[in-house]
Amino acid sequence: MNNLKKFDVKNSLISDELKENLPNWWQSINKEDYFLVMTDDLDSLFSCQRLKTLFGLEVGGFYSFEKGLYINDKISENGWKTPIFVDLSIGKNQYCFDNHRTFVKNENKVNPNVIHRDYSNKYNFSTLTLIAALYGGVDEMSDIQKELLIAVDGGFIGYYKNGGRWKDVNIYWLKQLGLADYLIPILEEKSMKYFQELGVDYCLHDKIIINDDGYLEMENGDVPDIKFEFKQGIEKCKMR
Question: Are 25 and 97 in contact (CB under 8 A)?
Fold first, then answer.
């Protein structure tokens, strides 16, 4: 691929340990060679919006967990551009930003869980929080934007649940992301109830669907106004 936009990795907030365990492709991306594939929640939507702000990347695909993969041929340039799946665990070494702990093997996934820990100690923040740490700029965010980094995908839950039993897990990952100084003071000041109400106020649990005409819909808020074509269905395996 030619003319890649090189991100200055010195501006990243993540720890050296995490950086050394991740693939390097996330440091060199641009809109001429890549497009984004979004999924059905606000973690994916917000993450795509952040990547568009940073690199001009367009959403050219949508993955429905009920139906399968949809693509806009114009944005993807009929398959000439490389997809980056956002907030989705995917195999075959395809590029993705992901926060889930799965058994899917992929050497190109950008996921904090490459630092292997017991399941109860796995990464417990969002893909959005990961992207904010990777590319920096958190110091320029408003207070509410920082709070959303905590609230999206329920990243705050472990800090407060069962009297803070899992607080150390949150703190560990915030240190790995380089976000401890930004977000731990907010967690200390706020409460479980505060973030639950924030989730309601910002409709963080809304789902995104694709209608029969190939357009995205969400009850509250805006989604990309793009027509998608169905490309690949889901193959469901029966458990034996």
Answer: no
Q: What is the DSSP string of the chain?
A: --SPPBP-GGG--S-HHHHHHS-SGGGB--TTTEEEEE-SBHHHHHHHHHHHHHH-PPEEEEEETTTEEEE-HHHHTTTTSEEEEES----TT-EEE-----S---TTEE-GGGS---GGGS--S-HHHHHHHHH--GGGS-HHHHHHHHHGGGTTHHHHHHHHTTHHHHHHHHHHHT-HHHHHHHHHHS-HHHHHHHHHHTTTT-BEEE-TTS-EEESSS-------EEEEE--PPPP-
Nearest Cα to 122, choosing from 147, 102, 94, 93? Answer: 102
pLDDT for 104:
85
pLDDT in tens, 174-190: 999 999 999 999 999 99
Please state, in angstroms and rounded to a whole number, the distance separating the CA atoms of residues 143 and 39.
26
Determine the pLDDT at residue 236: 55
Contacts of 41 by beta carbon, 8 Å cutoff, 6+ apart: 87, 153, 206, 207, 208
Residue 96, beta-bridge partner list: 85, 109
With bands split at pLDDT 50, 70 and 90, how would you rate the model's confidence at 205? very high
Question: Tell me, what amino acid is at 224?
Answer: P
Q: Are 39 and 17 in contact (CB under 8 A)?
A: no
128-153 average pLDDT score? 97
pLDDT in tens, 17-49: 999 999 999 999 999 999 999 999 999 999 999
Q: What is the pLDDT of residue 140?
A: 95
